Amino acid sequence: MKSMIVYASHHHGNTEKLVKGLAEKYDIDLIDAEKATEINYDEYDIIGFASGVDFGKFYAPVTDFAEKLPAEKNIYAIYTCGQDNAKYGGQIQEISQKSNCKFLGKYGCKGYDTYGPWKIIGGINKVHPNQDDIDKACAFYENILKTAENK
Ligand SMILES: Cc1cc2nc3c(=O)[nH]c(=O)nc-3n(C[C@H](O)[C@H](O)[C@H](O)COP(=O)(O)O)c2cc1C
């Protein structure tokens, strides 16, 4: 099954670190949504959308590309954030279901955050994502692969 992650990561490269960790281990094509002008989803079976969280939402270039999904794809979401919230990634679930795709799950972890007041104290989550976060993302992805293959 051919696999791709469409991502954006402009705050500290946290999300990029996570998806690059995945792509080192698995056969996944990475597409930077902030650089790409078009995405051809045709040959891909499993598509992840990954982003830092910006006021509760994924970065617009990522959700804009998600809005262009054809039907019947296997979709998942990955994010890094300052403080986790169960709602993060729900946007990708909604968009993919609207496009008649199968939403297979989401994975999020902490990422270095220097927004607003955090900057004064040198930021929070300085060491994240770390190897443990990447390992957990890999375990999550293994499950995504298994679920997609069994469908
Ligand atoms: C403008 C701005 C808004 C943010 N909003 C949120 C937020 O609503 N919730 C949260 O948990 N983290 C928030 N963060 C923290 C980022 O989501 C976090 O640092 C993330 O890892 C950045 O990912 P990136 O380096 O891949 O861009 C915000 C950061 C910035 C700069």
3D structure, described in words:
The chain has helices spanning 14-25, 60-66, 90-98, 117-120, 131-150; strands spanning 3-8, 28-32, 46-54, 57-58, 74-81, 102-110. Strands 1, 2, 3, 4, 5 and 6 form a six-stranded mixed beta sheet that branches. α1 (14-25) crosses α5 (131-150). It contains five helices and six strands. With 151 residues, it is of the alpha/beta class. The protein has one domain: 3-Layer(aba) Sandwich (Rossmann fold), CATH 3.40.50.360. 38% of the residues are buried. β1, α1 and β2 (28-32) form a beta-alpha-beta unit. It binds flavin mononucleotide. Flavin mononucleotide binds next to α1, β3 and β5.
The run of helices and strands is: EHEEEHEHEHH
Number of domains: 1
Could you tell me the CATH topology label: Rossmann fold
Which architecture name does CATH use?
3-Layer(aba) Sandwich
Q: Percent range for helical residues?
A: 25-40%
> Which structural category fits the helices and strands?
alpha/beta
Task: Give me the Rg, rounded.
Answer: 15 Å
User: What average pLDDT do the residues reach?
Assistant: 96
